[in-house]
TrEMBL record, chain A:
UniProt name for this protein: Branched-chain amino acid ABC transporter permease
NCBIfam families associated with the record: urea_trans_UrtC
Listed transmembrane segments: 54-85, 129-153, 160-178, 209-229, 257-277, 332-353
InterPro entries: ABC_transp_permease, ABC_transptr_urea_perm_UrtC, LivM-like
Species: Shinella yambaruensis
Location in or out of the cell: Cell membrane
Alphabetic keyword roster: Cell membrane, Membrane, Transmembrane, Transmembrane helix
Mode of membrane association: Multi-pass membrane protein
Claim: Membrane is one of the keywords in the record: yes
Superkingdom, natural source: Bacteria
One Pfam family cited in the UniProt record for this chain: BPD_transp_2
Length: 387, 254
């Protein structure tokens, strides 16, 4: 059962992408750790961390593609799931600081001491264990997506209305997490992390390991999403996108179909967030900003929605561009991003990967037609030659 | 309310009695009653706004009636069920505008329509069995699309899309098929072929066809129900119905 699911998942493009990701997961840390800083092939640590961050963005965009590209659910709140996964990891990292905080409290993180709290809130228990935090990084976004999706899809909220309430969801979380008495560090969020699983979070080795973990997580998620969209369930997902009432009158429970994809997608976004936080060293309510979710939509659109690989390409390209652009012309980045979105919508409606695919298919068809024509011409010429 | 002989209910495949529904004060259906027998092919005609599509919406669970009874096979109360449940019970519906999955191939369209377990996890791990493959091939030949099986549904002609949708309904293996204007936009040759196809299908199940094309209905040669303003105006053979004074006034004459 699982093997046939995997066999279907592994198309040629997916195998190639997974191979690239796994190679990078091994090669980049090796080039960072094993070569001298003046070696021409040396990868500086800041580049490792920067691209590690891009890979978590790519995972977030891939997660969005599952629901937007294949099911037509334009979620404008996916950064919320990302941030929840990030907070789960952040809570673990806070607990790891222990007595090394500014106030030296062995149990309470600094912000709680500052707020004069005497004991750990109930929802902070368990986060001193990595496995528990890792589980929560997946379960918390999954649960939110389940509850939200259950009501939204059952009530048949569709299209722009659904997009608006996802936006409202992330905005509500933004406001909630800003409050000090929520117990998540308020405005400042969680930061000053010391170590993860006993390793110094700043060290070169840990940075490389986090990069490798992000690449592997992305590769694994790509295989899973590919398996999902290529299964019969995936075809139903596309059916819901293109003709929802038809799927319903064929006897499918559209709300269950949507809910499954939405929850899986939210969980992946949570994993992305959990990998993001140790690499950037901070998580604060700003991650819930509605604008963040909209940016994810832009990466996905630029790369090509509904292509799985496109969002990965889009997230890395746009964020790479952002890093370069904000260093050179910091004030103009948002204009550039807006302009990019308009240009892509107008001239590359299928995104980069979608357009390349279309071009390759056209060429193949052209060559096929040409070959067929030549064969016909040859067959017509044959009898005359025989005479 | 009981305008029908209630003894028709237990043996019928579809039983509507006194069904009324209104939208914003407009009475789309006004105490509509009729019975379809198992294995029957029935044509329903009527002017625009007579309530034909609303009637289908009620039978398939898209709309809830304000009053009246709708029973499937005499015992199942359809007013208490939603679209997916009703489809799984064995009622298939063809839309007025051909509605197929355009970005899937003809084959995939039929595969999705097959009457198999429709849960998320069973579809996630579904594998095409030899039995399912044979069934799809059989339907492909019934709807004359065998040589288009690998083409995207989007690339089919209008008439072929209509047939694909009929094929999808067959794959659903319904006991009752509701078909809304199957020959709208078809050429004469396609219309004649569709009549043959529907008669073939009606051999093994009950079919209700809503249609405007009187020639097509004459081709079908079945019992006709004429609706107007949300209730039954006349019922009988096509000659009987088209001779009815009220039908001429309301529908044919105009």
């Amino acid at each position: 059962m699982i093997t046939s699911f995997l066999a279907k998942a592994l198309g040629r493009n997916i195998v190639v992408t997974v191979a690239i990701l796994l190679t990078l997961a091994a090669l980049v840390p090796a080039l960072n750790l094993l070569t001298a800083p003046d070696h021409p092939l040396h990868v500086p640590t800041y580049i490792v961390s920067l691209f590690g961050k891009y890979l978590t963005y790519a995972l977030l965009a891939l997660a969005l593609d599952l629901v937007w590209g294949f099911c037509g659910i334009l979620s404008l709140g996916h950064a919320a799931f990302f941030a929840l996964g990030g907070y789960a990891m952040g809570m673990y990292l806070m607990r790891q600081i222990g007595a090394r905080g500014s106030y030296g409290n062995p149990l309470l993180p600094d912000f709680m001491v500052f707020l004069n709290w005497k004991e750990l809130p109930w929802f902070w228990h368990g986060f001193d264990m990595f496995w528990f935090a890792a589980l929560m990084a997946v379960l918390a976004p999954g649960l939110l997506a389940f509850v939200f999706g259950w009501f939204a899809f059952r009530s048949r909220v569709n299209g722009v209305y659904l997009s608006i309430i996802t936006q409202a969801m992330t905005f509500a979380l933004l406001l909630a997490f800003f409050r000090n008495d929520m117990g998540f560090g308020g405005n400042n969020g969680l930061t000053d992390f010391k170590d993860i699983l006993g390793f110094n979070i700043q060290s070169q080795g840990t940075r490389s390991a986090l990069f490798a973990a992000s690449a592997v997580a992305l590769a694994l998620s790509l295989v899973i999403t590919s398996g999902i969209v290529r299964s019969k369930y995936g075809k139903i997902l596309v059916g819901v996108r293109d003709a929802e009432s038809r799927t319903r009158f064929l006897g499918y429970r559209v709300e269950h179909v949507k809910l499954f994809a939405f929850v899986v997608s939210a969980m992946m976004a949570g994993v992305a967030g959990a990998l993001y936080v140790p690499q950037v060293g901070i998580i604060n309510p700003g991650e819930f900003d509605p604008a963040n979710s909209i940016e994810v939509v832009i990466w996905t659109a630029v790369g090509g929605r509904g292509t799985l690989i496109g969002p990965i390409v889009g997230a890395i390209l746009v964020n790479g561009g952002k890093s370069v652009f904000t260093a050179a012309f910091p004030e103009f980045w948002l204009f550039a991003l807006g302009g990019l979105f308009i240009l892509v919508t107008l001239f590359l409606p299928k995104g980069i990967v979608g357009t390349v695919r279309q071009f390759v298919e056209r060429r193949r068809e052209y060559h096929k037609a040409k070959a067929a024509e030549e064969a016909r011409a040859f067959a017509a010429a044959e009898p005359q030659a025989a005479e | 309310m009981n305008t029908l002989a209630s003894n028709a209910k237990p043996t019928s495949i579809l039983y509507l009695d006194g069904v009324s529904v209104s939208f914003d004060g407009f009475k789309a259906l006004n105490s509509l009653s009729f019975v379809i027998e198992p294995g029957e092919l029935r044509a329903i005609i009527g002017p625009n706004g007579a309530g034909k599509t609303t009637m289908m919406d009620i039978i398939t669970g898209k709309t809830r009636p304000d009053a009246g009874e709708v029973f499937f096979k005499g015992t199942v109360d359809l007013t208490q069920k939603d679209e997916a449940e009703i489809a799984q019970l064995g009622i298939g519906r063809k839309f007025q505008k051909p509605t197929v999955f355009e970005s899937h191939t003809v084959w995939d369209n039929l595969e999705l329509a097959l009457n198999r377990n429709r849960g998320v996890f069973s579809t996630l791990f579904y594998r095409l069995t030899a039995e399912d493959k044979a069934r799809i091939e059989e339907i492909l030949s019934t709807v004359r699309l065998t040589n288009r099986k690998d083409d995207l549904a989007a690339n089919l002609s209008h008439g072929q899309k209509q047939w694909l949708e009929i094929g999808m309904l067959l794959a659903q293996e319904p006991e009752l098929l509701l078909v809304d204007e199957p020959v709208a936009g078809m050429t004469d040759a396609e219309t004649a072929e569709t009549a043959i196809l529907l008669k073939e299908i009606a051999k093994t199940r009950s079919v209700v066809v809503v249609e405007h094309d009187m020639g097509f209905i004459r081709d079908l040669g079945v019992k006709v129900t004429c609706l107007a303003e949300g209730s039954v105006l006349a019922e009988g053979s096509i000659d009987f119905v088209s001779a009815d004074q009220k039908v001429i006034e309301n529908y044919l004459g105009r």
